[in-house]
Amino acid sequence: MTAVIWFKQDLRLQDNTAVAQAWHNHERVVALVTQTEKTWQKHHWAPIKRDLYERRLNALASELAALGVPLHVINAESYCQVPACVLQFMQKQQAQQLYFNREYPLDEKRRDQAVVGWLQQHGIQSHVSDDLLLVVPERIYTGQGHYYKKFTPFYKRWLAVLAEQGVSAPQHLPAKGPPIGLPEKVTLFGDKVSSAAWRADTQAIHAAMEQYYHERLHDYAQNRDIPALNGTSALSPYIENGSLGVATLARKLAQLTPDFPDGLEPGASTWLSELAWREFYQHLMWHVPRLSQGKGFQEETDAYPWVNSEERFTAWCEGRTGFPIIDAGMRQLKATGWMHNRVRMLVASFLVKDLHLDWRLEEAYFMQNLVDGSFAANNGGWQWSAGTGTDAAPYFRVFNPERQSEKFDPAGQYIRIWVKELADVPAKHIHAPWQWLQQYARANPYPKPIVEHSQMRELFTQTFKQVKNGL
Ligand code: FAD
C-alpha cells in the first residue's frame, strides 16, 4: 500500500520522524510538498529564504530519486486550499496513509488539523509526528499544570526531560526501488534573491555542522557575542528549513559526554541553551494563539502609542541612523539576509526604545529579509527586545548603542566591514563618530544621529510604565 510523506519545514531524510515511520511501514512511498504562495506572502517569506528553500527542495528531490521515491510539488495557493489539494493527491496516488510532522504556530496548527479532518472523512489515515523539537510542548508543564512563562525554569525542566528521553539513534533508509530518473527542476513562484552563500545539499550542510563542532563550539561561550568573529554556528537557515534536524545536532553533543545533557563544557552547554531558546518560543506559539495574531504576550502593552514615522523607519531599514553599530547590523541584513544575534538584539531594542516604532512592523521587515526567518524565533526575539514578551528584558533596561558597541566591537572591526564610510575613523571615535567627522572629515556622508538616545530612552520608559499601569 502506498504512503505519502508530506514535507514542510523538515526538508531532510535523516532524523525525520515522519520519513522514518513511513519508510518502515510501507513498501511504496511518495513524497509531497505543497506550495502555498499566498500564505507564504502573508507570512512574509523573504526572497532569499524562498531561494534556499527551492534549492533545498531540488537537493531533496535528487536524494529521494536515488532511493526510488518521487517528489511531487503541488500548488495549493494558500493554507485554506491545502486539505482539498492533499486529498486529491492522495486519491490520485491511491494512497491510504499520510505521514507528516506537526508545526506549532496557529495557522500551521489549523492547516494540519484541517488536513487530518478532511482525509479522515474520506477514509484516509494521517500519522502526525513530532520532529521539529527535541522536547514537545506537552512534556513541559509547571507543577500546577501551566506552561512556563520564563525561560530559566523552562530550561531546567527541558533539560530534565531531555535527560529522561535520551537522543534517538540514527535510522538507515534502504532504497524503496531502483533509482528513478532525475526529477524535473522544482521552481517555486515568487521573487527570489540568490542564497548561493548558503548550502543546499546534505553533504555540504553536514560539513558546515561538523566544521562548527570541531572549530568553534569549544569557544562558543566567549565568542558568541562578538559580531566581528565567526563565533556562532551560522546553522540557523538549515535548522529553519529543516535540512538539519535537532536530533542530529543533539546527538553530536551527546557524543561529547556520557552524562548528556549534563556534563558539557561551557561552549557546548551554552550552545545547547540556545537550542532551548528556540524550543521555548515554539512552545509559546503552541500554547498562546494570540502570539500568532500580531499581539503582545503582555496584552496591556498593545496600547502603547507607537510613533508613525516613515522617515525613522526608512533610516533604520537602510542603516542610516547615525548610530554605527545599528547601521552596520541593518546593512549586514540587507546585504546577506543574516545578522549576528547580538546585533539583532541591539537593532530591535533601538527601533523600539529609541525610535518608538511599533515592533510588529519591523518584525515583518525582518521576516521579509532573513534567510533564517522563523516566525516563532523572530516573534520571540522582537517581543523580548520590545519588553512586551514573556521573559522580557525589563522595559526600563534600555541598551545604549554606543556602550554596547564599545563592549562588543571595541576596535570597530564589525562596523568597518558594513559601514564603509567609517573605515578610517579611529577606534576611539568609531562608536559615536559625529564630532570626529565634523572636525576631520567634513565631506564624509555618514549621517548625524537621528535621535538623542538619553531623551528617547526617558520618554519610552515613562510612557511604557504608564501603559503597563493602565494609565
Ligand atoms: P547560534 O548562536 O549558533 O545558535 C544555534 C541555533 O539556536 C540557531 O541557529 C537557532 O536555531 C537557535 N537560536 C539561537 N538563539 C536563539 C534565540 N535567541 N531564539 C531562538 N532561537 C535561537 N532566529 C531564527 O532562527 N530566525 C529568526 O527569524 C530570528 N529572528 C530574531 C529576531 C530578533 C529581534 C532576535 C533578537 C533574535 C532572532 N533570532 C532568530 C535568534 C538568533 O538571533 C538567531 O537564531 C541566531 O542569530 C542565528 O545564528 P546562529 O545559527 O549562528 O546561532
TrEMBL record:
The EC number(s) this enzyme carries: 4.1.99.3
Keywords of this entry: Chromophore, FAD, Flavoprotein, Lyase
Single GO MF annotation: DNA binding
Binding site for FAD: 220, 232-236, 271, 274-281
Keyword field contains Lyase: yes
Family membership noted in the UniProt record: Belongs to the DNA photolyase class-1 family. Belongs to the DNA photolyase family.
Name recorded for this polypeptide: Deoxyribodipyrimidine photo-lyase
